[in-house]
């Protein structure tokens, strides 16, 4: 597992639940030292153990933690650079959805050895979409549901999202776009400050 993914989980748990909670989760998961280097690679079993320990310690389903991590990636002040990167996918939420197919390639431009699952968006009917995530490790689709939910709020769109499960290396997300201008979206300036680097864990 790429260290950037583990580092992101660490930052999510630290920023959401506090440094003391992260320290206890890291201890229970036998992560020593209690931090992940973003540019290293780790055994996927360690990521699974981290998620299982976090779910038990926080008394939350693992799926909920993954979805919350996706929401964190867009909505937390410490991840503003990623939010900006995603907003460059389109002026409207519909345009953003159609840009998702290119997201793994755009991620590799920033981190060449980061291998995200493939994404394929299909419009089944007007305002109804299916997003397929293809990859050997289940869970990315749940993170993506959190990202999509937060991005819909960012654009001011009203959507219904349904993660329909994982089977044979594929996760399926049903997306129903109810209204594109349901609420006022968050301010976004294309000419804003340049993207900053992902912060290192402290």
TrEMBL record:
Q: Which InterPro entries match?
A: H-NOX_domain_sf (IPR038158), Heme_NO-bd (IPR011644), NO_sig/Golgi_transp_ligand-bd (IPR024096)
**So which domain of life are we looking at?**
Bacteria
Protein name as it appears in the record: Haem-NO-binding
Q: Which GO cellular component terms are attached? A: guanylate cyclase complex, soluble
Domain named Heme NO-binding: residues: 2-156
Which GO terms of the molecular function aspect are on file? Answer: guanylate cyclase activity; heme binding
A biological process (GO) of this protein is:
cGMP-mediated signaling
